[in-house]
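Why show two proteins at once? Because comparison is the fastest way to build intuition. When a single record is shown, students tend to memorize it. When two are placed side by side, the eye starts asking what differs. So, the first record is below.
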Amino acid sequence: MSRKPDPSVVRVAGPWTHRDVSANGIRLHVAELGEGPLVLLLHGFPEFWWSWRHQLTALAEAGYRAVAVDLRGYGDSDKPPRGYDGFTLAGDIAGLIKALGAQRAHLVGHAWGGATAWTVGAIHPRLVSSISVLAAPHPLAMRRAFRRHPRVNSHVLRFQLPIYPERWLTGENAMQVARLLSAWSGPKWRSAPEFDEVIRRCRQAMMVPGVAHSAMEYFRWAVRSQIRSDGRRFAEAVDKPMQVPVLQIHGSLDPITLESSARDSRPWLGPGSELRCLPEVGHFPNQEASHTTSRLITEFLQKTS
């Protein structure tokens, strides 16, 4: 991993099909498997679409068209210099739903992908059938958590600096990605056979040119917008209950998005919503407890379809 990898390195082979889709003025790389109602899978930091490999196969077997996307700035998707604000990210997913030929989609998001799912549900409700979020309290609940627990979210403050965070992330062939994955996950997953492969692939994906900077721009907008007019407009836009059910899946050992923050999302939940807390699981339920997470999502979708 001494040379910066080509973006195509993230197109990991499997039963899924890779393709590019134009949406909201950019090109998004997706991996697709199955037929049926559309389920869009939105990854978090510091990952890429492949973090949903277990759910892709499980959802396809359950009769869904599962599509995992590299979000703007990640993997083999475009990495424009702008557009890492909540409005534009939601527009990416709204455009992707339409570009995939669907009228509506079930959204499943982890961390930043979960925040985007909440936002699409608020701003583009007609495109959303249900929302499932993993380690992703409502954006306004996360704002409150950041103010109440600054030490828990100290990495967010570190990421506000210019240039240094990108160098920090990509130094030693993205060794910090390995450290973040280890620090944020539960002990059982860290000893799992697949953990070394997860670290290797996520480090490689972070070394793709432009990814580290794009990933930091998500965090920078989230913090800096709070004192700007666009941040106030965003808060007003998402401050409404969802019109669809929301499944919240949260690891009891998650050290950076606390279970209390997930529970603080109550004012924005739609009818028929559920909260499931998984013991011995950290920040990555879709990978740490893949079978349980896939089952919970599938059962939830079957109730809401």
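Second record. Ask yourself what differs from the first in the token line.
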Amino acid sequence: MRVLVAGASGVVGHPLVGALRARGHQVSALVRDPSRAPDADEALLADALDRESLLPAVSAARPDVVVHQMTALRLLRDDPAGAFERTARLRTEGTALLVEAARAAGARRLVAQSIAFAAAPAGDPVLDEDAPLYVDAPDPGWAATVRAVAELERQVSSAADLSGLVLRYGTLYGPGTAYARTGGTGQRVLAGKLPLPEGGSGVTSFLHVEDAVTAAVAAVESEATGVLHITDDEPAPAIDWLPHYARVLGAPAPRTVPAAMAPRLLGWFTTHQLTAARGASNDRARTTLGWKPLRPSWRDGLGTR
């Protein structure tokens, strides 16, 4: 098939281009910065928030399938507020423009990335795709992020004339991610600056980058629609994964702090992740998409690459 990958320079998008080409697809890589373009059959330059540049670029590719992997999270270290603001725009305005462009270009299918850790902290420790999203989170920044995610999922699922599938990735680890040794989280743990709130009961569902890629390839080649959690098989409370991660990195053991102090020390989101977040079940992806993770447990690689 002819496949256009929007966000082809990202942590998932870059290896995805190669994986799709290895499967025999003709792949167009849509990027803003030509110096970051992967080795593709065709590189297309466009700003996904600029209709006048995006629509002609997508039309030129004549894709059968469009893959939405766009975020601005690589800007997190230098401009966290800007990274989240642009990512929210890419998930709302950018998705709307990409849907319009895909339809105008005659594409039949749209696959888009979302996140599997946006559920409201209610109910079982591990939730399926039907659980409500945390759109009313008390932290304004996280509430805005989740609302943008919800809008992306709504647009993809309801796009007329397009077969839409949303992949909710778990917390990514592996090369280029925050959990790589050189990533932001890795560096915090190495410096002993990520303490564990008492109890550590927040659950994280991890996903290796390689498994995100295999899921996206399966999604391109599938007819499945809807929303699917793409995570490993072992949702883990913070009290399990954080000390293990520190040991693998060769970092100091995380010190334990009173839960009441955590928001001041860690900020709202990290406190939420470590104390209240729910994990995500991948059962539906296994049955609907016929996908399973090559790394079924975060214990097989978290902190090693």
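One difference worth noting in the second protein: The radius of gyration is 19 Å.
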